[in-house]
Design goal:
Largest sheet of chain A: none
GO molecular function, one term (chain B): sigma factor activity
Radius of gyration of chain B: 17 Å
Number of helices of chain A: 8
Keywords (chain A): Membrane, Transmembrane, Transmembrane helix
Structural class of chain A: mainly alpha
CATH class of the largest domain in chain B: Mainly Alpha
Number of strands of chain B: 0
CATH architecture of the largest domain in chain B: Orthogonal Bundle
Number of domains of chain B: 2
InterPro entries (chain B): RNA_pol_sigma-70-like (IPR039425), RNA_pol_sigma-70_dom (IPR014284), RNA_pol_sigma70_r2 (IPR007627), RNA_pol_sigma70_r4_t2 (IPR013249), RNA_pol_sigma_r2 (IPR013325), RNA_pol_sigma_r3/r4-like (IPR013324), WH-like_DNA-bd_sf (IPR036388)
Largest interface: A-B, 49 and 62 residues
Number of helices of chain B: 8
Radius of gyration of chain A: 27 Å
CATH superfamily of the largest domain in chain B: RNA polymerase sigma factor, region 2, helix turn helix motif
Helix content of chain B: over 70%
Strand content of chain B: under 5%
Protein name (chain B): RNA polymerase sigma factor
Helix content of chain A: over 70%
Oligomer: heterodimer
Shape of chain B: globular
Pfam families (chain B): Sigma70_r2, Sigma70_r4_2
Structural class of chain B: mainly alpha
Number of strands of chain A: 0
Strand content of chain A: under 5%
Order of helices and strands of chain A: HHHHHHHH
């Protein structure tokens, strides 16, 4: 086998004359083209992931939810949680930016792959955090409904569920919020992790390969 | 980015473009993706060029950026994966038609190298380029001992591909 590889090496070095040859102008044009590297992709997708949950608040029905909070007596709780949430989000964005800056094509293959995966991991933790917040929001709504005396009015259902006893109506509403909350979170999580998996499959495979022998 | 820097970079790359072409020929299977990868490597080299200090040779520096781009940064599209199956099929038939045993052996070897994973390919590439283990280990970010062990495994892998 060794001899065969040596044979290949000799042939390989002769191959040079068959290689394509680009002119000065062709190369000059290339340096102004836009990169389509995996880092670019991860950067843009991450930005979308940071912004997307906040766009939800612009949806009218989401704003109505804010009214529901005040009617359910959750205004202060909501305010505190919002402040905490933004502190955490800014921490994540800072981390993401710092790690993104560390990515350098001049590192070794292993270091480079590891840095990209670390950057990606920051976003992954952010997404897990966001999903937990979504679940928490639903949980708060459910608790609010439980302690509220005028649920039907608040949710605009007055007159529509009159035939049902109030306790049962409350239970039905709470259960639907719970089911919807879980399904919503699962759907968002599913889409995200699918995207994440596809994007970093090659990176993770190569990184495992580079790590395999390290003790 | 001044004109002089541009000129120096393009001239150096023009003179050393063989390195990039060889990486492209190992990591892609058709002309379109070859050009695609060549362009991406050129962009990455250019972006990193201001950090090139000249304490190593331009070509040595190129190996790292080119391989990093091929292994880590470059994204293959689905269309190109299809072309790969098509290509290796032609490759096999052609190899069988060769009379000369040595030529045929070489064809089979190239085919086998192309089937290796990204990291193994990089090892073989640096070996074929006559790089020593210290440079191989530095480029990939593994220890020299591991580079040797890995290279032996790659040789075994090639042997199994050649003699199934």
């Amino acid at each position: 086998m060794l001899d065969e590889l040596e044979l290949l090496k000799k042939d390989w070095q002769k191959k040079e004359e068959h290689l394509p040859k680009l002119s000065y102008d062709q190369i000059y044009k290339m340096i102004w083209k836009k990169s389509s590297s995996i880092v670019k992709w991860i950067f843009y997708i991450s930005i979308i992931e940071f912004i997307l949950p906040h766009l939800l608040y612009l949806v009218p029905s989401m704003r109505n939810n804010l009214d529901i909070y005040s009617n359910l007596g959750l205004t202060n709780v909501f305010l505190v949680i919002s402040i905490l949430q933004y502190v955490v989000i800014f921490y994540f964005i800072y981390q993401f930016y710092k790690r993104y800056q560390e990515i350098s094509v001049l590192d070794s293959a292993k270091q480079l792959t590891s840095n990209i995966l670390r950057t990606r991991k920051t976003v992954k933790h952010y997404v897990i955090f966001s999903l937990s917040m979504v679940l928490l929001t639903f949980l708060m709504l459910i608790i609010g409904i439980y302690f509220s005396d005028n649920v039907l009015e608040t949710l605009g259902l007055a007159g529509k569920m009159d035939s049902v006893p109030i306790e049962k109506a409350k239970f039905i509403i709470m259960a639907s919020f719970a089911i919807f909350g879980v399904l919503f979170t699962l759907a968002l999580g599913g889409i995200y992790f699918l995207l994440y998996g596809l994007l970093t499959r090659k990176l993770r495979r190569n990184f495992r390969e580079l790590q395999k022998l390290e003790v | 980015m001044d004109k002089e820097l541009e000129h120096r970079f393009v001239t150096e790359l023009e003179n050393n473009q063989n390195i990039v072409h060889k990486v492209c020929s190992l990591y892609t299977n058709d002309r379109d993706s070859h050009n695609d990868l060549f362009q991406e490597i050129t962009i990455q080299l250019w972006k990193a060029y201001p950090k090139f200090r000249g304490d190593s040779k331009f070509s040595t520096w190129m190996y790292r950026v080119a391989l990093n781009t091929a292994i880590t940064l470059y994204r293959k599209s689905k269309k190109r994966i299809k072309t790969k199956d098509y290509d290796s099929l032609i490759f096999k038939i052609k190899a069988d038609e060769y009379d000369d045993t040595q030529e045929r052996q070489l064809k089979l070897m190239y085919d086998a190298v192309k089937q290796l994973g990204d990291i193994d390919k990089a090892l073989v590439f640096l070996y074929l380029e006559d790089k020593d283990y210290s440079e191989i280990s530095e480029t990939l970010g593994i220890t020299e001992v591991n580079a040797r062990v890995k290279m032996n495994r790659v040789k075994n892998k090639l042997r199994t591909i050649l003699n199934p």
